[in-house]
Amino acid sequence: MSQAEAAPQGPPSVSLGLKENWPQFALLVLINAFVGGMVGIERTVVPLIGAEEFKIGSTTLVVSFIVSFGVVKACANLVSGQLADKWGRKRVLILGWLVGLPVPFMIIWAPSWEWVIAANALLGINQGLAWSMTVIMKIDLVGPKSRGLAVGLNEFAGYLAVGVTAYLTGYLASEYGLRPAPIYLGVAYAILGAALSILLVRDTREHVRLETAAHARQASPISFREIFVLTSFRDRNLFAASQAGLVNNLNDGMSWGIFPLFFVSFGLAVDRIGILKAVYPATWGILQVATGPLSDRWGRKGLIVAGMWVQAAGLFLTGTTSYFEWWLVGSLLLGLGTAMVYPCLIAAVSDASHPSWRARSLSVYRFWRDLGYAIGALSAGIIADRFGLSAAISSIATLTFVSGVVVAVVMRERKAGSVDPTQTPWPNWRP
């Protein structure tokens, strides 16, 4: 679980491993729980605020807040690695929290839907910078042998908080209304997350220097443009991970916006919708504690492929049934499949990236992954307006299954730390 991988070239006070860095690691786990909670305040109630308080009849317009969130978060992810290497991880983490502070107040006081869309643009920056830094810093701390575990614990904290908060907001909404009571949780998360980041977090760039000193030297410096091309499509493993990440969050964006509307169309009460919206991310969060380290032992590819297919099964079950019990099973399957996929994808990108440009490669991967929120919400909204909510869910389920097939064909297992700086270009790919 931990390893002291100190090398003579590094500062004597810095070493790699979970055991060696557990206080900072645990602090970052807690902070990422607050990051996840910021998204959790929206999972149950915000789509219903649009439909019921602002009387928006178009599904596409209701999910527009997810589109603004996804696009802005994707762009924030894209620059986060660059900023982290230039400014330091801690400064970017603090910036993310400062941008996120106004979000819950804007939702509480929003006089129109445009305010909610603007709040979600700020939330996208908060998530893109703060969540990116917590995962990058954990990877920095533990070194190459425990990346799956580090990512699993990070995503466990974030998505368990999403699930718990989704449940709590559903309960509070059923007791006190959609606003403002459920959103007060976001105020507490934002203040605590910012305070801990400013007062207690330490930067991890020295850990990166230590790992880089013990790693094979990069043949020549690599530009961000080259990293973008490499991560997006030129390296087969990075391409497979990027498209799977995009589709994973595409179906998550669809479920965020469409599921509450789908469930309420059958007359389901908001507190029971909160349960369904909590089960999915809570299952996703808890099981990553196991799937992350399992990927360190078994490899990433098998878990990713199987996870995409389990997600597809959960979506098909949800979209083709009309009873709470089946929806609950569908939510469990969706959570299980996402838990199998999520930490493995980040670990696979880390495996295929040189330490000197790993943060930037992860930022490109996270750009494509979180662009899926916008694509999923927008495409599902258009399909739902034209063909119905069930058709939107089933269409995204089909796409999720196909994405798993792409990973099965394209991705190759790669041992952590074995990245070849020259990489394999697209024309030389072999299945």
Automatic annotation (TrEMBL):
It is found in: Cell membrane. It comes from the Bacteria. GO terms for cellular component: plasma membrane. InterPro entries: MFS, MFS_dom, MFS_trans_sf, MFS_Transporters, Sugar_transporter_CS. The keyword Cell membrane applies. Keywords: Cell membrane, Membrane, Transmembrane, Transmembrane helix, Transport. CDD domains: MFS_MdtG_SLC18_like. Residues 25-415 form the Major facilitator superfamily (MFS) profile domain. It is a multi-pass membrane protein. The keyword Cytoplasm does not apply. Gene3D superfamilies: MFS general substrate transporter like domains. Coiled coil: none annotated. Signal peptide: none annotated. The chain crosses the membrane at residues 25-41, 61-80, 92-110, 116-137, 149-169, 181-201, 326-346, 367-384, 390-411. GO terms for molecular function: transmembrane transporter activity. This is MFS transporter. It comes from Bradyrhizobium niftali.
